[in-house]
Amino acid sequence: MGRRPIITRDAAARAALSIVDESGPATLSLARVAAALDVRAPSLYNHFADKAEILAEVARIVVLDSGRVPDPEPGGWREWLVEESTLFRRSLLRHPRAVPLVVEHLPQPLLVRLYRQYALLLGAHGVPADMHLFLLEGVHRMVLGSAISTATGRSALQELDPEPQPASAEEDERRFVAMVQAFLRGVDLP
């Protein structure tokens, strides 16, 4: 009978995410992850080939922890896409120091799987297939760009305002939602 492993891939990735949340991505090391799990660093190689694979798993966790909005009612795909993108952005902003890691290390197979899933839903709501990638990529870029801007505190408009006032989290999210809604209204679709 085999022994149950002391650590799991998920536990190691969540420990890595905690380190990034607490101290930033520059402080992440296999030794710190191992110490957080109370194991030796070489034991992590039973679960990950290298640090890049841990970072990909951290990105996967942040993305998948965003939750899901129920499938939309007929004609409600725009509102659904706004809500879905808002949940994703919230998940990113729960881990502001991890946002750059998600951008850089998001596993391509996960992104493809999610895009396919969302494209099927858009197709079921009458959105032409040739618009699926345009819509999904456009909203995805808005989510990432907005999250990076908010997480780093580097709004492009700060340079234009001589006395910028930081927006509350609610106001920041309201602006994001308005931006995505404006994008979707500008697309000539059913």
From TrEMBL:
SUPFAM superfamilies: Homeodomain-like (SSF46689), Tetracyclin repressor-like, C-terminal domain (SSF48498). The keyword Cytoplasm does not apply. Pfam families: TetR_N (PF00440). Keywords: DNA-binding. The keyword DNA-binding applies. Residues 6-66 form the HTH tetR-type domain. It comes from the Bacteria. Gene3D superfamilies: Tetracycline Repressor, domain 2. Transmembrane segments: none annotated. Residues 29-48 bind DNA. This is TetR/AcrR family transcriptional regulator. It comes from Pseudonocardia xishanensis.
